[in-house]
Amino acid sequence: MKIIIFGLGNFGMSLAVNLTETGNEVIGIDNKMDKVNIVKDKISHAICMDATNEQAYKALPIKDADIAVIAIGENEGAAIIATAVVKKLTNAKIIGRSLSPIHDTVLNAMGIENIIHPEQDFADRLAKKINLKGIVDNFNIDKNYSISELKAGPEFAGKTLEELNFQEKFTLRVITILRRKVRKTILGTTNFVQQSEGFVDKNTVIEEGDILVVFGLNKDVGKFCSRR
C-alpha cells in the first residue's frame, strides 16, 4: 500500500519505519528537517513540508495514497488543519491522531472514523502488563473484547488444546501460538525470535515457553492471568 504519514515524532517515525519494513511504500512528512534526515534512509520517501499549507500538497501524490495518517503530536491546531486539507484532497482512508477530547470532537465532526490515541493506548496496555501476571501484550477490540498474548503455564506443556479443554475452561479462543525459534543471521551468529505457528486446532500441542494469542472478554483474560 501507499501510505503518507504526516508528523515524524516518536510515534509517526516508528509507524513509518515499521510499515516500510512490512512492505509498504511510505512517504513521511514533517516540517522539521532534522526529523526528515533521521528517517530518510529508512522509509521510501521523507519530505520536509508544512502540512498546513495546502499549496505544498501539489508536490505530493496525495490522490494516489491508500492511507493518510495524521500523526502530528505537538500542535493540535496544525493536526486539525492538516486533516482538513487531506480530507479535501483525497479519498484515501484517513487515520487521525487525537491529542485531546476536543480534538476527538473535531475529528468526529469532520467525519474521521479512524481515530487513535497512542499515548493512552500504550498506558492502558502497560497497566494491563503490570496488573495482570502472565500477560505479554494486549490489543483492545472494544471496551469488552481484546486480543491478548498470554504465557502458557508449565502445566500446559506437552498437552493438546483438546486435552486442556482450553476454550471451554477459560472461555478464550486461541488464534495462534508464538513460539521461540533459533534464527541464524547473515553474520553466522544466532539469535531467538518469536514466530507464529499459524492457525491452530484441537490437536495443536503446547510447548514450554509458548505464548498463546487469544481472543475473548477482558474479564476472562483477567481470570486466566490470576488463576494461580
TrEMBL record:
<dbReference type="Pfam" id="PF02080">
    <property type="entry name" value="TrkA_C"/>
</dbReference>
<feature type="domain" description="RCK N-terminal">
    <location>
        <begin position="1"/>
        <end position="116"/>
    </location>
</feature>
<protein>
    <submittedName>
        <fullName>TrkA family potassium uptake protein</fullName>
    </submittedName>
</protein>
<dbReference type="Pfam" id="PF02254">
    <property type="entry name" value="TrkA_N"/>
</dbReference>
<dbReference type="InterPro" id="IPR006037">
    <property type="entry name" value="RCK_C"/>
</dbReference>
<dbReference type="InterPro" id="IPR003148">
    <property type="entry name" value="RCK_N"/>
</dbReference>
<dbReference type="GO" id="GO:0008324">
    <property type="term" value="F:monoatomic cation transmembrane transporter activity"/>
</dbReference>
<dbReference type="InterPro" id="IPR036721">
    <property type="entry name" value="RCK_C_sf"/>
</dbReference>
<dbReference type="InterPro" id="IPR036291">
    <property type="entry name" value="NAD(P)-bd_dom_sf"/>
</dbReference>
<dbReference type="InterPro" id="IPR050721">
    <property type="entry name" value="Trk_Ktr_HKT_K-transport"/>
</dbReference>
<dbReference type="GO" id="GO:0006813">
    <property type="term" value="P:potassium ion transport"/>
</dbReference>
